[in-house]
Amino acid sequence: MADFPDVRLHVVTGKGGTGKTTVAAALGLALAAGGRMVLLTEVEGRQGIAQLFDCPPLPYEERKVAIAPRGGDLYALAIDPEAALLEYLEMFYNLRRAGAALKRLGAIDFATTIAPGMRDVLLTGKVKEAVTRSRRGGPRYDAVVMDAPPTGRIARFLNVNTEVAGLARAGPIRAQADSVMALLRSPETAVHLVTVLEEMPVQETIDGATELTAVGLPVGGVFVNMVRPPMLPAAELRRAAAGRLGRPRLAAGLVAAGLEADDDLIDVLVDETADHATRVALESRERAELADLDRPRYELPLLDEGMDLGGLYRLAALLHDQGAA
């Protein structure tokens, strides 16, 4: 059983450099496996999804980017705030032509740049529409995954009611914000946090979870990315950390590998193993910090061969096996 069977909107956030876009894409593939239809969205204009799936830059329309394991379709959408505003004007005010005129006058840039709260309402509103649409409104997805802004901005980005308080206390914009918040605070939404086993990303993950909880947004799982397994047994790691790794054994290992066991090389290996043992101990402490969040936790390995489409399918399979989808 998946850990989030009732969730239809999976928001993925994480500190920069933790691989949140990669995790969002792998989660989308895992959710689509077995014949489901899933939409993967991005809201930061980076075209990270197109790069991962090795396809042309995504337009403001839903495009199929992959076939999931055992059938199922993964679609993707890059949400542009300007295009979303034009669509909003057409849907709610029937102002298609007027919207084009506003674009020429620069009013769209004003609305989406000068009023950042409006921009977030448009971006989250488009995602909400994809989650709640009827079949007559286009493809009805089994789940939607949002590659969201980094952890440091995620609570403010999702808490759109606060952001539009100074823009509109009533009317369609406020109603749109209220409907978005109703979805984001419902059991149909989970905000997942991506981290690596390093002090700063882990602390930002903990702070992000605390901030999300404070504003009433549901924290989902913690995705620990780019995990490197220990290369030595626990007893050897303790000896390495204490500088007591047996030099004769290292020399014998070098000879067995067909290498010259000179003192300089052995000194380098002793230092490397001590550094490795220190890193493994640090990662163990960071795991314990994450365990205190009491949220489902998933681990994804660092792929030595780099990230490509095959790597995404491998990560998706691991997420499926661990119960994330």
Summary tags:
about 325 residues, alpha/beta, Rossmann fold, 2 domains, 8-stranded mixed sheet, 14 helices, 8 strands, about 50% helix
Please tell me about this protein's structure.
The protein is α/β, with parallel strands linked by helices and 325 residues long. It folds into 2 domains: 9-228 and 302-321, P-loop containing nucleotide triphosphate hydrolases (Rossmann fold), CATH 3.40.50.300; 231-293. Helices cover 52% and strands 15% of the residues. The protein has 14 helices and 8 strands. It has helices at 20-32, 48-52, 81-93, 96-105, 107-114, 116-132, 151-158, 160-164, 172-184, 199-214, 234-241, 247-256, 263-291, 309-321; strands spanning 9-14, 37-42, 63-67, 73-78, 143-147, 189-195, 219-227, 297-301. The chain has an 8-stranded mixed beta sheet with strand order 3-4-2-5-1-6-7-8, sandwiched between helices. A hairpin with a 5-residue loop joins strand 3 (63-67) and strand 4 (73-78). Helix 5 (107-114) packs across helix 6.
Give a quick rundown of the structure.
With 325 residues, the protein is α/β, with parallel strands linked by helices.
**Gap from first CA to last CA:** 8 Å
CATH homologous superfamily label of the largest domain: P-loop containing nucleotide triphosphate hydrolases
Q: What best-fitting shape do the alpha-carbon axes yield?
A: elongated
Provide the succession of SSEs: EHEHEEHHHHEHHHEHEHHHEH
Radius of gyration: 24 Å
Please bin the fraction of helical residues.
Answer: 40-55%
Major sheet attributes:
8 strands, mixed
CATH topology of the largest domain: Rossmann fold
Mean model confidence by pLDDT: 88
- Given helix and strand content, the structural type is alpha/beta
- Share of residues in strands: 15-25%
Total helical segments? 14
CATH architecture of the largest domain: 3-Layer(aba) Sandwich
The counted number of beta strands is 8
